[in-house]
Amino acid sequence: MCSSNQGEKVPGPPVNETHHIDSREFSIASPVKSVRFGGSVSEILAKHEQGDSSDYDLLKHQLADPCIKDAQIISWLQEIRSCVSQLNKDHEQLIYTVLKLPWIGRRQAVVEEYMTFLGNLVSAQTVYLCACLKMVVTYFTPMRVRICVEGVNISDSEDEDEYENLSRNFDQCHKALQLIARYVPSTSHFLMPVFQENFPFIQKSSRTLECYVHNLLRVSVYIPSIRRDILELIIGKMLQLDVSASRSDIEEAEEIAMQNLQGHPLKEEGLFDMDEDMPANPSTMAVTSHSVAERLDTLMAVLMAYVKDICHVNGSLHVERTKELYRDLLSVFDKLILPTHASCHVQYILFYLCSFRLALTEAFLDHLWKILQNPSQPAILRQAAAGYLGSFLARAKFIPVLTVRACLDLLISWIHGYIDSQNSSGKQACCDINLHGPFYSTCQAVFYVLIFRHRALLEGHMKKGLEYLQSLNLERVVMCQLNPLKLCLPTVTSMFAAITRKYQIVFCYNVIERNNRQLLPVVRSSTGGDCVTTKTNPLDSFFPFDPYLLKREDDDDFLYGDTPKADAIVGMTPNSFDSNLCSPNSIGSPPITFQKPF
After folding, report:
1. C-alpha distances in Å from residue 464, one per residue of 401, 407, 470
2. What does the pLDDT look like over 404-441, one tens digit per residue?
3. What pLDDT shows up at residue 148?
4. Which residues sit opposite 28 in a β-bridge?
5. Mean pLDDT along residues 121-134
6. Where are the alpha helices (DSSP H) in 51-165?
7. What's a single GO BP term from this record (predicted)?
8. pLDDT over 50 at 289, yes or no
9. Residue 470: per-residue pLDDT
10. How far is Cα 484 from Cα 320, in angstroms, rounded to an integer?
């Protein structure tokens, strides 16, 4: 429960900003004229203090009337403002009733009067700060349209598609939130619990989630002190969606959808079959077929649009703002994304941001490298860092060959150093993923990078390229007692073996055949008889930048690349979102008027 201390009364000035409010009211009253009962608010409060609560209860009843008219709201608010210093915690039920008034979407005069009331209330009675914040945040998702006809309430569906005034309503919410923050500078300390409490369930519609996330990101623009917390909240929810929509489930849903559209039979895909089965016309499949993936797709589009808008000013990259956002996202990456197993898409936020500037790419690679080679880090995080390093180097076309070589030099040097340490230990080295997890993950990362980037390493000067690959001394890695080919994924092993044989760098097939001849472990069953057991390979699912399967960016090679056949280089192109990525059309990017922090 969020609470604040009662503060000193500060008169609230009228709101001078020009508001563009649609004349259409969300609460449509019947033509029957309503009659106001009871005396003035000051008289009602005086009687209530003396023990007569009849008019006090009547006041609350009239304020709660769904058919209340604009003129009535303005009149009551003006009187309540004149008595705001008396409205302490004892009158919370009255204040809560006022906070439930349907002010959003009404005439400009109502909206301005309500905002003035909010300013007066939070400055004079800060005990209601959190209640006011919660009220504003409830409007961050599309509200139900309430219609009162001859005393009968008729409400539409919560998931109504068309909201003509949605953008204007959100503008009103943010003006109210800014007003509160102006009167109570400590507002930022109370916002995050409110945002967390009101975050829609991830099972809600894409529309609801889209609007809420968009509005949280707007808040981060004018209250930047909580941006990192907001990003952490949003990305945490997105990760819940991400791990609930596995790559195989999305592919199966898309295949079924394509089969229904075109009558084609289902086809199995391998690790390196990346876009053979994409429809010739992606626009025919504009929506992701998997329902959870569709919600994630929507949020990814909103967040990537936000990243682009924050980092660019008038179409040019703003270096300082980009660096600040990178630091915030990197913090969230370390805390949430890196430890999350089997996320498929959320990590592309960092991928996209790094494409803006080579310095960011190098900083991200250096960050991953420091985690990998740090023995004080948990082994599972070191393995994850190796996976991210390998996948990033393999997939990102915007990483120059010189940077790829520099990273390979670091990785292979670490691998050889690890082999040296095992050889000098005096103990018999054994093939054990639990003992040497970071080593195996790093080996697989190197193999994976070479599969995708070997052609780039050889282009221009084949002889020098081959000399470089031979200098890596991959034969020693493959032949060492730790036997990395035994634990690497079969698809990686076979592809690496084919490429290294083609260029006569190392011959892996003798090792592969020997590994294949080894028997699977046999254990005695408690119920009698023998049974074969196998363990899940911890190196599986360690390709975090495998092809992006969501639909909203599916016509852009930033998120696909080519199938690695005929030595193709699979990856992404820099800044390829620029042509088609934008904030949701129905909402728009945060207007410039919201970009000044307090």
Report:
1. 13, 18, 10
2. 999 999 999 999 999 999 988 778 778 888 899 999 99
3. 52
4. 147
5. 96
6. 54-63, 70-82, 92-99, 108-124, 129-137
7. transcription initiation at RNA polymerase I promoter
8. yes
9. 96
10. 43
Q: Which value, to the nearest 10 degrees, does the dihedral of the CA atoms of residues 484, 338, 321, 589 take? A: 120
Pairing of strands 27-28, 146-149: parallel
DSSP 152: E
> Whose CA is closest to 471, among 387, 408, 400?
408
Q: How far is CA 28 from CA 32, 105, 106, 138, 162, in A?
A: 12, 11, 10, 20, 17
* 330: Cβ contacts below 8 Å, ≥ 6 apart: 350, 364, 367
Q: Which residues contact 550 (CB under 8 A, 6 or more apart)?
A: 250, 288, 293, 296, 297, 300, 345
In this prediction, residues 84-98 reach a mean pLDDT of 94
Beta strands 312-313 and 522-524 are unpaired
Would you mind telling me the total number of residues written for the chain in this entry?
598
Give the mean model confidence (pLDDT) for residues 553-568. 42
Which tops the pLDDT comparison, 88 or 267? 88
Nearest to 381 by CA among 372, 390, 389, 373: 372
pLDDT band at 186 (very low <50, low <70, confident <90, very high): very high
Decide if 83 contacts 118 (C-beta within 8 A): no
Instruction: Return the percent helix, strand and coil in the chain, to nearest 5.
Output: 60, 5, 40
pLDDT of residue 546: 81
Q: 8-22, 185-199, 292-306: which range is least confident on average?
A: 8-22
Long-range contacts of 307-316 (CB under 8 A, 24+ apart): 307/349, 307/352, 307/353, 308/577, 308/578, 308/581, 309/583, 309/589, 309/590, 310/221, 311/353, 311/356
Contacts of 542 (CB under 8 A, 6+ apart): 383, 384, 386, 387, 390, 391, 441, 444
Buried b (16+ CB within 10 A) or exposed e, 390-402: bbbbbbbbbbeee
Residues 116, 175: contact at Cβ < 8 Å? no
- Rounded to whole angstroms, the Cα distance separating 231 from 302 reads 12
Contact 73, 34 (CB under 8 A): no
**Contact call for residues 146 and 102 (beta carbons, < 8 A):** yes
Terminus-to-terminus CA distance in the chain, angstroms? 26
Q: Is the pLDDT of residue 223 over 70?
A: yes
Q: Are 183 and 119 in contact (CB under 8 A)?
A: yes
Residue 152 makes CB contacts below 8 A (sequence gap 6+) with none
Choose among 75, 82, 79, 76: nearest CA to 12.
82
What is the tens place of the pLDDT at every residue in 451-493?
A: 999 999 998 889 999 999 999 999 999 999 999 999 999 999 9
Contacts of 385 (CB under 8 A, 6+ apart): 338, 368, 369, 371, 372, 377
